[in-house]
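FW: tagging you since you asked about this chain on Friday. Here's the raw sequence from the shared folder, copied in full. Didn't touch anything.
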Amino acid sequence: MACPLCPGNSLDPLGYHCVTCKRGGDVTLRHNALRNVLFNTFRRAGLSSHLEVGSGWGQESSRTRPADILVTNWDNGISAAFDVTVASLLNSSTIMEAGMYMYSGAAARAAELRKHTQNDSKCAELSWKCIPLAVECYGAWGPEALKAFSQVATRLAIRGNTSKSMALTDLFGRLSHSLIRANARAILSHSYSHLMQQVDEL
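HL: got it, structure written out here
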């Protein structure tokens, strides 16, 4: 069955193409949903956070955005530029990169390294620390994301008078819920488009 949004590609029984197809806007919606969960969580943790900050922060002419979320009080006065990305597991380049790491989250780790290549120099010019937050499309997070979430959970536990493990469990629950909803929406949108196309052809 051909994808209704990008002819030439086929829909697969497991829905992999649906959750990675760049047509229809579902990939962007998923990215933004995860970003918003993290942004709200950072704020609840008492972190001074700003959305979609460019390398020319404060200058309207800048179009580059190394930070999906900029946290200006991250660690010992250093600002952190968090860049959210979702890794496609079966992309040929990802498979080659992830082949160097034989563990769950290997594709996410490869995505983290790509983000460093793209953004480290931009962030260094502004004295920001680049921290990629990479997740595989089925839910495994990269090591840098896990380390950052641990630091955020410590802050949440202190502010919420709860345990760090409870704060971390709540964060992963929110992220997982957001990711699952976005993937389900992508599968439904592709399937619905295909059904509507069939109806139109009757």
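FW: The first strand starts at residue 49 and ends at 53.
HL: agreed, and The CA atoms of residues 98 and 155 lie 32 Å apart.
FW: great, closing this out.
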